[in-house]
Amino acid sequence: MRRAKRQVTDIDLIKKFVDEVEVVRIAINGEKYPYVVTSKFWLFMERRSS
């Protein structure tokens, strides 16, 4: 098998991550690069702040 066919790209890793988590939110907040946060993280932060 050729190396190009085996090579994993960033897009492949992102797709795998999105498939593994239940819900993903992309939060931008005026930053240069968006970041990916799972909904479980937001639930944790909301419970912690209340």
Automatic annotation (TrEMBL):
This is Flavin-nucleotide-binding protein. InterPro entries: Split_barrel_FMN-bd (IPR012349).
